[in-house]
Design a protein that fits this description.
6 helices, alpha+beta, Deoxyribonuclease I, Chain A
């Protein structure tokens, strides 16, 4: 059944991909996405975390009606990402700002997503706000082998709180090809970009050290690093501490390729603050994804999912992502971030003689 489905979606996209150099080949397309879900809490008070605002009696009046509306909006977005390349949408989706398994279960069981049978990997972290990262995945595409959470120690005085989100590390099989995925939500810029930067540099270092250890054993490992990095593609945390490069020809075997640099330099972003665009939501790839002439999946393109219905059309946030919240008032939008996604391709038919 899986092989039949695989062959079906592959054949659908041969016409879409005729711009590739090898025009007599057909390719399968896999979509990988990341989305900050903006304060995706349930309505139940959890004494272990700071969620008092997100309960019916809290200052946000966070009722079941608002919660269901939030799920409807998030499911709408996730159901549409990347469907021009694959009708099944993303094979995997890194998410941030989720409270627990409850919200993830409610999201993947929404009618717009239920038929995809999304599963997820999630661990609770000690973040002061009680929000975590997770990886949603379609088991038709990705099989999970193992996963762990990587603790991020915050430097002294970099943040007011002692704890931030853990990094989620997942090893899996993408149609039998081993892939390694890091899902991140680095410390915010609250308190000032300069003061808070050591926290993001610490999170980048956790990723980099783990990647170095992995690459010592598997130099050509296929690695994806995704997340809301709370820094731009050209920030030192991303370029120096994580070890990324934005020019394809400069990427060495142990570097990460950051395809978002050129977009950012053109003024394209995933969130806006004080009328300036930032591109915090990134997906980076190890060098092994970059060779198109290979048997496995390779990187094809990147995209910000910024459809018109996701854009605020009035008020002080006009032109920004249509957020869920304006202060403590429910705005009824989607998220204060646009999702980002990449397309991976794999050759499935040899050139006919």
């Amino acid at each position: 059944m899986q092989q039949m489905k695989y062959a079906l979606f592959c054949s659908v996209f041969i016409l879409l991909l005729m711009k590739l150099p090898a025009q007599k080949h057909s390719y399968s397309a896999v979509v990988v996405a990341f989305y900050n879900l903006e304060n995706f809490y349930d309505t139940i008070n959890n004494p272990a975390v700071n969620d008092d605002e997100f309960i019916p009696s809290g200052v946000r009046n966070y009722t079941g009606k608002i919660y269901r509306d939030k799920i409807e909006h998030l499911a709408t977005v996730l159901s549409l990402i990347g469907t021009e390349f694959n009708p099944d949408g993303p094979a995997m989706i890194g998410v941030a700002e989720i409270e627990n398994d409850t919200v993830l279960n409610d999201l993947v069981q929404h009618p717009l997503l239920r038929n995809r049978n999304y599963k997820f990997v999630h661990y609770d972290s000690r973040d002061a706000r009680g929000v975590d990262v997770a990886l949603l995945y379609n088991p038709q595409y990705l099989h999970i082998d193992t996963s762990v959470k990587l603790f991020v120690p915050l430097p002294h005085n970099s943040k007011d709180s002692y704890f931030t989100r853990d990094v989620l590390w997942v090893k899996g099989q993408l149609f039998g090809e081993t892939v390694y995925i890091y899902v991140n939500h680095w410390p915010s810029r609250r308190g000032g970009e300069e003061r808070s930067s050591p926290g993001r540099e610490a999170a980048a270092t956790v990723n980099r050290k783990h990647i170095d250890s992995l690459q010592q054993k598997e130099p050509h490992a296929k690695i994806l690093v995704m997340g809301d990095l709370n820094d731009d593609p050209v920030s030192p945390s991303v370029t120096q501490f994580l070890g990324s490069k934005g020019i394809l020809e400069e990427v060495g075997i142990h570097d990460l390729y950051n395809p978002w640099v050129a977009m950012y330099q053109k003024g394209i972003g995933t969130l806006a603050f004080r009328d300036a665009w930032g591109l915090f939501d990134q997906i980076l790839l190890s060098a092994s994804w970059l060779t198109k002439d290979q048997k496995g999946f390779f990187f094809y393109r990147q995209q910000v999912f910024n459809k018109p219905f996701l854009v605020e059309n009035t008020g002080k946030y006009r032109g920004y992502p249509m957020r869920s919240w304006d202060g403590t008032n429910y705005r009824g939008g989607y998220s204060d971030h646009f999702p980002s996604y990449i397309i991976l391709l794999k050759k499935i038919q040899a050139e006919r003689q």
